[in-house]
């Protein structure tokens, strides 16, 4: 094991994948010589050359469209979208082409491509560079969506996405890029669709993903001081999501809290709550509670952004609400 940063783990995943498979290429704005806006692709141009690591024009639609064509003709492209907010410009290629190809061609063609994108706040980048739009993508049949919370998963989920034969969206929280954690010397891929129990408890289940996992763990520590032990589940994969693990936890704790940085309305939490209210209704001893951002764009000012994003105090309050 060695200690590396979250962004370095993704960088290593890209290097290992490109070394193992010459069909893997990288496309995006400033991904070559500059090394990406957050330094994640630093050094890849020197290792693999301009034929496989290509800076592109500032056109997310063109980048993604080219990647769809490349994937359908034998390559495994990795696209970097500088900020998740700009996924709006890729939607035809992603939603109408990449996600539908296997269906449209009767299973004879797939689109083995990866689209990486940072989401979320924490760096005061304002309303057009801080959104969490993962619910849009998880709503599209044919797309897989993952969101790592740890250094180990940053590596393993990226590798799993690259070898998958269908389009996979890898969402990286920009506030995590500098976070440190342990990475095995010979790491393995994490299967897409399998959650992780980050902390075991008996009194309530907290389901979350990405950067909110560490916030939920901090809330669990605070709750433990009052004698409340919370199960914290890191979804890791949003589409498909690990319904069985969430239901098994709910069966033990009988209370469910779902937390994400995205706006609460019509989000990932709403889908999980609806499903658990169906298949887990008999296990519930209290109403399901969601914790998310208010229905407004992310503010720019630090004080307002801190208020806007869910924190440990809001999760603690939600758990205590279910306990009452």
Q: What structural class do helix, strand and pairing data support?
A: alpha/beta
The poorly predicted ranges are: none
In total, how many beta strands? 14
CATH level 4 superfamily of the largest domain: Thiamin diphosphate (ThDP)-binding fold, Pyr/PP domains
H/I helix tally: 12
> Percent helix among the residues?
25-40%
The CATH class label of the largest domain is Alpha Beta
State the separation between the terminal residues, measured CA to CA: 43 Å
Number of domains: 2
Percent range for β-strand residues: 15-25%
Q: How do the helices and strands follow one another from N- to C-terminus? A: EHEHEHEHHEHEHEEEEHEEHEHEHH
How are the strands ordered across the major sheet? Answer: 3-2-4-5-7-6-12
How is the CATH topology of the largest domain named? Rossmann fold
Provide a descriptive summary of the structure in words.
- By secondary structure, the protein is α/β, with parallel strands linked by helices.
- The chain folds into 2 domains: 2-183, 3-Layer(aba) Sandwich (Rossmann fold); 196-323, Rossmann fold.
- It is built from 12 helices and 14 strands.
- α3 (60-72) packs parallel to α4 (91-98) and α8 crosses α12 (312-323).
- It starts with a strand and ends with a helix.
């Amino acid at each position: 094991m060695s200690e590396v940063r979250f962004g370095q783990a993704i960088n290593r995943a890209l290097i290992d994948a490109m070394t193992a498979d010459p069909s893997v290429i990288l496309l995006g704005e400033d991904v070559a010589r500059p090394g990406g806006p957050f330094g994640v692709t630093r050094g890849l141009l020197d290792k693999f050359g301009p034929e496989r690591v290509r800076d592109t024009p500032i056109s997310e639609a063109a980048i993604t469209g080219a990647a769809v064509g490349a994937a359908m003709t034998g390559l495994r492209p990795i696209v970097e979208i500088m900020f998740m907010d700009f996924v709006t410009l890729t939607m035809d290629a992603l939603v109408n082409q990449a996600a539908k190809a296997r269906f449209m061609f009767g299973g004879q063609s797939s689109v083995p491509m990866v689209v990486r994108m940072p989401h979320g706040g924490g760096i005061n980048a304002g309303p057009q560079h801080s959104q969490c739009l993962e619910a849009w993508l998880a709503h599209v049949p044919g797309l897989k969506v993952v969101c790592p919370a740890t250094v180990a998963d940053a590596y393993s989920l990226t590798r799993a996405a690259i070898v998958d034969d269908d389009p996979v969206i890898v969402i990286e929280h920009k506030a995590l890029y500098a976070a440190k954690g342990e990475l095995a010397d010979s790491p393995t891929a994490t299967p897409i669709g399998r959650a992780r129990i980050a902390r075991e408890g008996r009194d309530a289940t907290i389901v979350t993903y990405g950067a909110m996992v560490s916030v939920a763990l901090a809330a669990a520590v605070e709750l433990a001081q009052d004698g409340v032990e919370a199960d914290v589940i890191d979804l890791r994969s949003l589409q498909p999501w690990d319904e069985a693990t969430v239901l098994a936890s709910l069966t033990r704790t009988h209370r469910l809290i779902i937390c994400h940085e995205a706006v609460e309305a019509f989000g990932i939490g709403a889908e999980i709550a609806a499903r658990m209210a169906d298949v887990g209704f008999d296990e519930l001893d209290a109403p399901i509670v969601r914790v998310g951002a208010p229905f407004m764009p992310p503010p720019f000012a630090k004080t307002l952004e801190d208020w806007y994003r869910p924190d440990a105090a809001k999760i603690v309050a939600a758990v205590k609400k279910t306990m009452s």
